[in-house]
Design a protein that fits this description.
- The longest helix is centred in the C-terminal third of the chain and has 35 residues.
- The protein has three domains: about 60 residues; about 260 residues, Aspartate Aminotransferase, domain 2; about 110 residues, Aspartate Aminotransferase, domain 1 (Alpha-Beta Complex), CATH 3.90.1150.
- It has a seven-stranded mixed sheet with strand order 2-8-7-6-5-3-4, with helices on both faces.
- With about 475 residues, it is of the alpha/beta class.
Length: about 475
């Protein structure tokens, strides 16, 4: 038997261990970071590790790693597992293709392009549209900003920036915008953070006032980042009204749908993206609402020439066969690029667009269960609203940071906290579509039981009970 065959048998054995561990202990026992290297042998040495010891340490690592697929993980904007997507990801690892040329990726290029083509159709982009799979939502936002910069300052790629450029995003947008302004040479001080309404949505009138002011002061407005699913509240900016502004001032409109842009698959919820067809670029992460393994991010561009103009470089040693449409390195940020499309394709192919719609709708149904529970329970304070899968609340006026930390440290459940304006609260995310109503209600049960049993600990932490 080959070494790979033996390792695959070991892999299957470890998978069984992990699944059993998740069933019996949905929250991993926390290892304090100060003693991590003393608790598990993570050292790399000159000598080989014998098989039994190797399997033992792999088991220890699996058991100690946070379990993001269980029914008590509500901390991040991803969670759960879609088995057909896992199948595709495992196959991509075994195939080990790079996605820059048709010569080395073959039909995998067609798989990526089919996902992009169907996605463009869903949001209403025309025949000139295209896209690529970046390394994540932050990179999608960065690529959009680079294309916007190059449209307004075409000689920038050769000579550097020749004019003071400014970009706009809401106060509730993703933190990557600040990093991207720095990377693109625009500068963090040339970001304008637009005020939001009571639901965390950008106010288009405030956007236009700021643009007018910048023009009067000699700046060149180039880019507006609208958000489809803000990180904390899960709010959708009013894309249609923002597009009125960007079209008036001839600016690039990017819609960051990393968190919730996948509502494009749901007939019931795609109205939250009204106006997206007027944008210049749109991104969504299939590893969030759709549930593929990390990472699986897509950026779509209404006119594919912008991808080519900003990211193409000739390389005779690389692009030796087939046309540009099949050599995807001509329109991507990276050269070497793993195949993130196959896991999305195996899921989509196996369950169809109707199946993807069910995955999306399930999350909103679970959010309704959680929001209704909070709204109808006198010990809870609700900060959320309909059409969001982020359920923000406080329980018995307990400090949310303290409560979330204690729940994590005692291996009860994993959930985070967030801020909006003057309020801090627990942020409970229903993005795991494999959960059920029972799982959602169980979260509140374990939360309430923990508070009741640990009132002394909470008082020691100076929590107001």
């Amino acid at each position: 038997m080959s070494e790979l065959s033996n390792d695959l048998l070991l892999f299957n054995e470890l998978v069984e261990i992990l699944l059993n561990e998740e069933e019996s202990h949905p929250v991993a026992k926390r290892i304090d970071s100060n003693v991590l290297f003393d608790t598990i042998d993570l050292s790399l040495t000159k000598n080989a590790m014998v098989d039994d010891a190797f399997k033992k340490v792999l088991k220890e690592v699996l058991i100690a790693t946070p379990k993001t697929a269980t029914n008590l993980f509500f901390n991040q904007l991803f969670g759960g597992r879609q088995s057909k997507a896992i199948l595709g990801d495992l196959l991509a690892v075994l195939l080990n293709n790079s996605m820059y040329t048709y010569k080395v990726a073959g039909p995998q290029v067609g798989i990526e392009q089919e996902i992009i083509r169907q996605s463009c159709n869903l949001i209403g982009y025309g025949l000139q549209s295209n896209g690529t799979f970046p390394t994540g939502g932050s990179m999608s936002n960065y690529m959009a900003l680079i294309m916007a910069r190059d449209v307004k300052d075409p000689s920038c790629r050769e000579n550097g920036m020749t004019k003071p450029l400014v970009m706009y995003t809401s106060k509730e947008s993703h933190y990557s915008n600040a990093k991207n302004a720095s990377f693109a040479g625009i500068g963090k001080n040339n970001i304008r953070y637009v005020e939001t309404d009571e639901k965390g949505r950008m106010i288009p009138a405030n956007l236009e006032v700021q643009i007018e002011l910048d023009i009067q002061n000699g700046f060149t407005p180039i880019f507006v980042n609208a958000t489809a699913g803000t990180t904390v509240l899960g709010a959708f900016d009013p894309i249609d009204k923002i597009a009125d502004v960007t079209e008036k001032y001839n600016m690039w409109l990017h819609v960051d749908g990393a968190y919730c842009g996948s509502v494009l698959f749901s007939d019931a919820k795609k109205h939250l993206l009204n106006g997206v067809e007027r944008s210049d670029s749109f991104s969504y992460n299939a590893h969030k609402m759709i549930g593929t393994p990390l990472t699986c991010s897509v950026i779509l561009v209404k006119d594919k020439k912008h991808l080519h103009n900003s990211f193409s470089n000739e390389a005779d040693y690389l692009y030796q066969t087939d046309g540009d449409d099949f050599n995807l390195g001509k329109t991507s940020f990276q050269c070497g690029r793993r195949n993130d499309a196959l896991k999305f394709w195996t899921l989509w192919k196996s369950i169809g667009s109707n199946g993807l719609e069910k995955i999306i709708n399930q999350q909103f149904e679970l959010a309704d269960v959680a929001r209704n529970y909070v709204a109808n329970h006198p010990d809870y304070t609700l900060y959320s609203f309909e059409d969001s899968i982020s359920i923000c609340f406080n329980y018995k006026n307990i400090d949310p940071k303290t409560l979330c930390t204690l729940l994590y440290e005692h291996q009860i459940t994993v959930v985070g906290f967030g801020d909006f304006r003057e309020d801090t609260f627990i942020r409970f995310v229903t993005i795991n579509a494999t959960n059920t109503e029972k799982d959602i209600l169980n979260f509140f049960t374990v939360l309430e039981e923990f508070v009741e049993k640990n009132s002394a600990i909470l008082k020691e932490k100076h929590v107001n009970l």
